Amino acid sequence: MANNDSQQDFGIKEIVAHAKEYGFVYPSSEIYDGLQAVYDYGPYGAELKKNLKDLWWQAMIKLNENVVGLDAAIFMHPLTWKASGHIDSFNDPMVDNKDSKKRYRADVLVEDHAALLSAQGQTEKAQQLVSEMNRLLDANDLTGLRQFLMDEKIVCPVSGTTNWTDVRQFNLMFSTQVGSVAEDANVIYLRPETAQGIFVNFLNVQKTARMKIPFGIAQIGKAFRNEIVARQFIFRMREFEQMEMQFFIRPGEESQWYEYWKDVRMKWHKALGIPAENLQFHDHEKLAHYAAAAVDIEYKFPFGFKEIEGIHSRTDFDLGNHQSLSKKKMQYFDPQINQNYVPYVVETSAGADRLFFMLLCNGYKEETTGEGDDVKTRTYLKFHPALAPVKAAILPLVKKDGLPEIGRKVFEDLKYDFNLIYEDSQSIGKRYARQDLIGTPFCIAIDHQTKEDETVTIRHRDSMEQERVKIAELKDKISQAVSIKNIFKEL
Ligand code: ATP
Fold first, then answer.
1. Which of 222, 223, 203 is nearest to 213 (CA)?
2. What is the pLDDT of residue 230?
3. What is the pLDDT of residue 229?
4. I want to staple 345 with a disulfide (CB 3.0 to 4.6 A). Which of 233, 236, 314, 388 is the partner?
5. Could you tell me if the CB of 195 is within 6 A of ligand 1?
């Protein structure tokens, strides 16, 4: 029996096709040929994403006495984005190739070229390229950047030429108007990050929830960025969801809390079943306009190690700027040291959609068994039971002899605790295969023996092993597998 599970490395193609075929992710408004970089989540995708967000929320709010939640609006006062620096600095350098007419982010072209050189062993040259690009971007020398692309022979992947237009800065915020009459209308932005809703509510939360520093505010919500190049499925979208936590601390304690949250967040990803070798830290060379130190947690996607979450030491940049622009004090009185100060912030910022994509890539398995003419392939999604869209399928072996009635009763008993599927037609093999494709960890088969001794078989998704258990034990067995306590006891 051959099992090549461990050496699997699937391309995006299989995963995207599977996600669509089995109800996880559809292109947005597909009947009109879709909308670039926007996606909809189908029935199993919506469950998986909700479970993921719930686990993040529980890990933040339940496991940390000093972290509380918030649900701020997407629209905010336009000055918010002046204070945060997004109006002036939230830009990407954009460049077009005159031959292929394709548009790129100039920094991504350089980074991809550097990654290629690194892979060929030219690490030093690759580092030089990235440093020089960062120097040009910091100096806002866009003419220099264009020349640099040409001098270094960084070509368009489509046309193969260096026939580049001027590099232009492109602001990533979407804008619209509030107000019904055009003359009265004010420009308003769709938030490009959820964090600012937390900053402007810092004192509201601190006072009303009686928080003492250090404390955190966590939030999950939509964010919008007019990305220049949308690529790689749900990796880079124009509408996406963030799970962010701002941790407010005493100035001077930022290094210690930065290390603390780096460690906790890395452990969280591992606790979801992502192997350590597929995760890594990547320190930022070029810091965002708000950051004093920043690191990405990267996952090894089929297209390489890429960011899934950022940990940023944001100093008092945001609160300080909001204080200056709003003329409202953003200070905290620290009774332990008898001082007023604007707190420093360490943030953890994860993308729900990117983590979802990671779970799909990590979970997608094709297992080949048998030899010669007898080769069979089994495809399944190996999700942690707590994340799996459906926890168990109740499957009477045949649709007669009173088995469906027992199955229905089991379903009724368990449905308050778990998301279940009941199915009593087609062969049991076909029904198992269907559950594998959506990642259901337990298939519960009801057979003739059930009528005699009230036992059923549990068929385990990953090992395909079968186990005989009492109906009365089912709830406890599934509860243990999906228990948050079991997942996070190491955290
Ligand atoms: P990138 O360098 O990939 O553009 P970023 O550094 O701009 O990402 P942050 O501003 O740190 O990203 O945002 C925090 C998290 O939000 C990212 O780690 C990512 O998971 C998610 N995210 C950011 N932009 C997008 C997007 N366009 N689509 C999906 N998720 C995103």
1. 203
2. 73
3. 81
4. 314
5. no
